């Protein structure tokens, strides 16, 4: 134990000593000494910093659990007071840790409060009749059955009391509009949907934080707006339009070179647009456990950065005058960071992509400065940044599954790798075996297993689904994307300005075809998809607390998290099922029949809500099943 850890242990031992004259069992005293020593070692290793995102997340959960909207001033004043208190207590180690933890909780609460106020905008109160809408187009998504438009409203006729500023509407036919254009259309609008049942996905909350005040369907054609061709759009529209135009140009180039489903997947891997992928392919990828590959996340970001770093460093190493006199490793790291940043912008910057970019940025800056990157600390920094920028993302599956998978992988690697390297002398020993686990194909299989294990409770909670063949699917499909498709796509983008990209896109398309066939083959295996009933949020929260303790701590204190994990799994079943379910609009009602299954008793039913109710009960029927009537 190093000097600082000994000093911390001495302080803890002094404060936790038994009162004079009180007899203490030698066994208890020995265990007390061990626990204090382990705690001191955790603090000396900086594990307290890793708990800051956990405390900040706790503050965010407190905000969203509040029965009423809190004051804006109170959380900020509390945060400022706790920061000052922590600064004043900086020489009193234990008190400083407590004050800092409370400040992190207050920071999470304040971040959520401020973000809610910053995003404040009108939300449609009730479903409207047919409206004539003039608006600027911010984004266009091409879908199988038409287009989905994100619009910034200029005017609505007839006028509404709380006319939304931004809306999202779906046209069942193809449109010819583009981002940045003024349009006029007729549509029926409705407020963002409430959860289908308590505890299920809240569409309204996500729409609010996206700045959307209504959604709806277009009736009739979408025509150029009456503002005139010379009208200048507001700067937010122009900025979004420029971004969408860039992504649109890349999408068109890719889909022109690679037709069909393979082109849509190639587009998703570069721009993050998954709207052109048929739902059947999406379902097959989910069943095979490879759907995350279609969503730009850490896998893609790390792969792009690593390829650029290797190419730039390898290319510069071929020039002796540079390799021997210049810090080409730093140049390669900065080049990889620039490309990763461009990839972040092009891909749409989803939560998983933001997390990955922050981690990669910290690592690459560390490489450029010849400083080692502490991977768990890097993950903590990424979590703090994402929670500060988008506190609402804590409640979504993207944040939870992305960080759970990354935490499991990083914690497993930093725990096993050093020990394996120290004990790898014996070719037949366990150390050499574990060294193999962290390398090559065996490492990929182990990583897939670890990530799947960590994300399964969150997938079951949010999607009521568990996929059993994720490890096999990733083991077969991920190398195709990693070693064939992504390098070819990067090369194609580099060759695009020179006009030699189409043959490379075609080769990438062949790799994607193989990836799709592999995923469909794995998805065809029997029994791979299990539907589970809704889980209780308390169970997921307890499981998460235990999982974090096991993953973040480095001494035997980490095993104190296992009882919490077990308790979380025990609390997971949702308990008694409701007798009557009513959707948010009050138009769809389902009641429980004597056989325990749901029956729809309303004349007209919202099939989407009914399907969500059935899935939440692990009922395999579809919303159109005649037995529901």
Which descriptors would you attach to this protein?
single chain, 629 residues, OB fold (Dihydrolipoamide Acetyltransferase, E2P), 5 domains, five-stranded mixed barrel, three-stranded antiparallel β-sheet, globular
Task: Provide a descriptive summary of the structure in words.
The protein is an alpha+beta fold and 629 residues long. The chain folds into five domains: 3-118, no CATH class; 130-233, OB fold (Dihydrolipoamide Acetyltransferase, E2P) (Beta Barrel), CATH 2.40.50; 280-531, no CATH class; 537-571, no CATH class; 580-628, no CATH class. It is 59% helix and 10% strand. It contains 24 helices and eleven strands. It has helices at residues 3-15, 26-44, 47-50, 52-65, 73-88, 93-118, 203-209, 235-257, 260-271, 279-288, 291-294, 298-317, 320-323, 328-347, 351-368, 375-389, 397-422, 430-437, 440-463, 470-495, 502-523, 537-552, 561-571, 607-616; strands spanning 130-143, 146-157, 166-171, 182-190, 214-218, 223-224, 465-467, 529-531, 580-582, 589-592, 598-600. The strands form three sheets. A five-stranded mixed barrel has the order 1-2-3-5-4. It has a three-stranded antiparallel sheet with strand order 9-10-11, covered by helices on one side. The chain has a two-stranded antiparallel ribbon with strand order 7-8. The protein is globular and about 80 Å long. The mean pLDDT is 83.
């Amino acid at each position: 134990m190093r000097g600082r850890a000994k000093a911390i242990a001495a302080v803890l031992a002094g404060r936790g000593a038994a009162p004079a004259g009180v007899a203490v069992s030698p066994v208890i005293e020995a265990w007390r000494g061990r626990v204090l020593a382990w705690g001191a070692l955790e603090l000396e290793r900086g594990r307290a910093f890793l708990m800051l995102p956990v405390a900040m997340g706790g503050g965010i959960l407190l905000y969203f659990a509040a029965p009423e909207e809190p004051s804006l001033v109170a959380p900020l004043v509390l945060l400022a007071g706790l920061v000052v208190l922590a600064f004043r207590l900086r020489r009193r180690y234990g008190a400083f840790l407590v004050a800092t933890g409370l400040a992190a909780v207050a920071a999470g609460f304040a971040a959520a409060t401020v973000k809610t106020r910053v995003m404040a905008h009108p939300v449609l109160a009730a479903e409207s009749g047919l409206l004539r809408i003039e608006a600027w187009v911010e984004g266009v998504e091409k879908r199988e059955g038409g287009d989905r438009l994100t619009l910034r409203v200029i005017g609505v006729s007839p006028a509404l009391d709380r006319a939304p500023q931004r809306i999202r509407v779906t046209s069942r036919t193809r449109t010819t509009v583009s981002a940045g254009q003024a349009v006029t259309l007729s549509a029926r609008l409705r407020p963002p949907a409430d959860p289908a049942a308590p505890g299920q996905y809240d569409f309204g909350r996500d729409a609010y934080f996206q700045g959307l005040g209504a959604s709806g369907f277009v009736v009739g054609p979408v025509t150029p707006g009456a503002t005139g061709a010379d009208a200048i759009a507001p700067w937010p529209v122009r900025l979004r339009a420029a971004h969408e135009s860039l992504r649109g140009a890349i999408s068109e180039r890719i889909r022109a070179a690679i037709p069909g489903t393979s082109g849509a997947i190639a587009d998703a891997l570069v721009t993050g647009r998954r709207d052109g992928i048929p739902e059947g392919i999406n379902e097959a990828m989910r069943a095979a456990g490879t759907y995350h590959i279609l969503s730009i996340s850490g896998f893609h970001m790390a792969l792009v950065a690593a390829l650029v770093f290797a190419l730039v460093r390898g290319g510069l190493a071929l020039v002796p005058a540079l390799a021997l006199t210049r810090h080409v490793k730093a140049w390669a790291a900065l080049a990889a960071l620039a490309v990763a940043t461009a990839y972040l912008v092009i891909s749409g910057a989803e939560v998983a992509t933001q997390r990955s970019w922050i981690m990669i940025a910290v690592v690459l800056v560390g490489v450029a400065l010849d400083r080692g990157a502490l991977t768990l600390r890097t993950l903590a920094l990424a979590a703090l940044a994402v929670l500060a920028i988008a506190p609402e993302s804590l409640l979504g599956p993207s944040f939870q599954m992305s960080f759970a998978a990354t935490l499991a992988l990083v914690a497993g690697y930093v725990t096993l790798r050093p020990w394996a390297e120290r004990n790898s002398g014996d070719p037949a020993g366990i150390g050499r075996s574990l060294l193999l686990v962290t390398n090559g194909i065996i490492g990929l299989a182990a990583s897939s297993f670890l990530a799947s294990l960590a994300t399964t409770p969150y997938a079951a909670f949010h999607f009521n689904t568990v996929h059993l063949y994720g490890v096999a699917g990733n083991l077969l499909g991920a190398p195709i994307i990693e070693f064939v498709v992504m390098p070819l796509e990067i090369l194609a983008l580099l060759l695009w300005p020179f006009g030699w990209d189409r043959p490379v896109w075609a080769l990438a398309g062949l790799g994607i075809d193989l990836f799709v066939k592999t995923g469909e083959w794995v998805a065809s295996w029997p029994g791979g998809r299990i539907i589970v009933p809704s889980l209780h949020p308390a169970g997921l929260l307890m499981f998460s607390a235990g999982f974090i303790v096991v993953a973040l701590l480095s001494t035997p204190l980490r095993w104190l998290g296992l009882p919490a994990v077990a308790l979380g799994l025990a609390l997971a079943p949702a308990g008694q099922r409701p007798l009557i379910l009513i959707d948010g609009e009050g138009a769809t009602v389902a009641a429980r029949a004597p056989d325990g299954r749901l029956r729809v008793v309303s004349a007209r039913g919202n099939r989407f809500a009914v399907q969500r109710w059935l899935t939440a009960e692990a009922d395999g029927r579809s919303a159109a099943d005649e037995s529901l009537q």
